[in-house]
Amino acid sequence: MVEWCKLLLPLSLLGGIPLCNFLVHLLRRITSGGDQSKAIGSRTSTDRGITILYATQKGTAAQLAGRLAKRVEAKGVTPQVVDLAHYDPEDFPAEKFVAFIVATYEGGEGPVATHDFFRWLEEHSNDFRVPKNAFESLNYSILGLGNSVYADKGHYNLVALNLDRSLQKLSGQRILEVSLADEQDGLLEVCDAWIEDLTQIVVQYGNGKALQPVRKAPSAAVVEDSEEDGSDDDGFEDDIQSQGSNLMDMEDLGQAYGKKNKNAELLNPRLRQSLTKQGYQLIGSHSGVKLCRWTKAMLRGRGGCYKHTFYGIKSYQCMEMTPSLACANKCVFCWRHHSNPVTKEWRWKMDDPEFLVTESIDAHVRMINTMKGVPGVKPERLAEAYTPRHCALSLVGEPIIYPEINSFVRLLHERHISTFMVTNAQFPDRIDQLDPVTQLYVSIDAATKESLKAVDRPIFDDFWERFLACIDSLRRKGQRTVFRLTLVKDRNMEEMAEYCELVKRGQPDFIEVKGVTYCGENTASDLTIKNSPYHQEVVRFCEELCDGANLAMGDTYGLACEHEHSVCVLIANKKFFVDGQWHTWIDYDRFHELALGNKAFDATDYMEPTPGWAVFGADEKGFDPAEVRHVRKQKQKAST
Length: 640
Prior knowledge:
There is one protein chain. This protein has helices at 2-32, 60-74, 115-126, 158-169, 188-206, 250-258, 269-277, 293-299, 306-311, 353-369, 379-385, 405-414, 428-433, 449-456, 463-476, 496-506, 535-553, 588-595; strands spanning 50-55, 79-83, 97-103, 139-146, 173-174, 179-182, 281-283, 287-290, 318-322, 390-393, 418-423, 439-443, 480-487, 510-515, 557-563, 568-573, 577-578, 581-582, 585-586, 607-608. The chain has 640 residues and is α/β, with parallel strands linked by helices. The strands form four sheets. A ten-stranded mixed β-sheet has the order 7-8-9-10-11-12-13-14-16-15, with helices on both faces. Helix 2 (60-74) runs parallel beside helix 5 (188-206), helix 3 packs parallel to helix 4 (158-169) and helix 16 crosses helix 17 (535-553). The longest helix has 31 residues, at 2-32. The protein is elongated.
């Protein structure tokens, strides 16, 4: 292959981009022998079968392609399923019937591995040397997978729309209207309808019947090269190639999706099924609770989570809950595999805060009840666990966007349930409006605009400005404030000077630094176990962060606590170091007294001494000596 490149490079330089592209595809065919190793099924182009081409990153399009293949095969039609990442574009002109299932991701582009095909098709459709009837013998249908949250950027299902436009330019025969499935609505209804309709058409085609093309353009399409500006918003021209096409433009599309039915439920059937399978107890139409493994562990006397070590919370009385399962980011380290909606604002039916608090506690109690009879569970702890005393508003999603969040928090405090709220630093106005919580977190996932975009994958265009504004808002809050850093090796651990500047800007009471936990293969992220730092690497990072921050701000921060099991270290402002002792723990009764009163208070008014075993550098490494460390037995290898 290398020798071929050396021979053909001078020719490509002389011939320009078209010749270069031709040579790339020629080399591919020479080296691969035309073998489509990822194709399922085998047939010749003269068969009246169907080729199913899909573009996927998270695996949804691949699953749908498999479902379509099974449906048509059951009807006696031979399918061929190919990932566009492994498809040779030069084979495309020979296709007779193609079904496309294509996903659109950030920036309005398809999966990176499929860019070659889409680039080839666009160049082919715009090449004046290619006859405008080049695809007149091609029957095709397109299913687009997208998310309407990107509509205001003009990116909603853009891959599917551009694909249709390119095929129409070369007279491809659209035999079904382009179907655009919206992740916000759960995808299933549109996808199932498209598969059913297409299956019927494929059967007709397999029986030798001629297919009639559909001229109606997709309702969200844009004809960028139209010379006339259509003004009639009530309908569409019959032919997408008409120069006076009256298609909805992307600005109108963004407004249309922004005005979706406010009574729609966030939890659509597909999302309910997915989250239920993951162990969530779903509350109403947009909330959920889940039982943490540390809750189960501490019920059995096997140790508490880092919040027990750092702040004195009893893990077996902690309820993990969120009033909003939607988020504004798609962080690469998120363990929920991005099955939840993303949004810029609240736009769903809203459940009453009293209902959410009551139902969440009831659901949590039901999950605690399943621990009854589990070997090792301590009866006295189980009895206490039925009365939750802490709520971690950090399960998934962005709880701060729930419109009644202040009422919700106050209802928890009235029940003497403390609150730790985590926000992803995209809603500064909501932070400003937030009433006191026991501890308020802002996720600081990177220290520069470029790395934050790469790690958090935010949906706001002005994400960096919002991020900085949230840090400014946090500094103005009176309760305990925390920077939460999740360290990802090779992604966000190298920007020490910039992190120090953010600390100087926000002046948080605490900085929690945790190594990312590898949660297994995730098609929505390319993280591996190699991206998870060791505890000592996190410690070194914290030491450098303290040194840098103190250099800029004076002797302000120190290493206070660690929880080695969670690969987590707590940096604290030295105002919590009183009389030679750290006071990172919380006097929860005192907090509730202050929160429900009328007087102003600050973080030092409800601090409590940190026990020696929890302090950084102690032999226990953050493991409570009152607990019994449980070491799992290694599985024995089978003898041969």
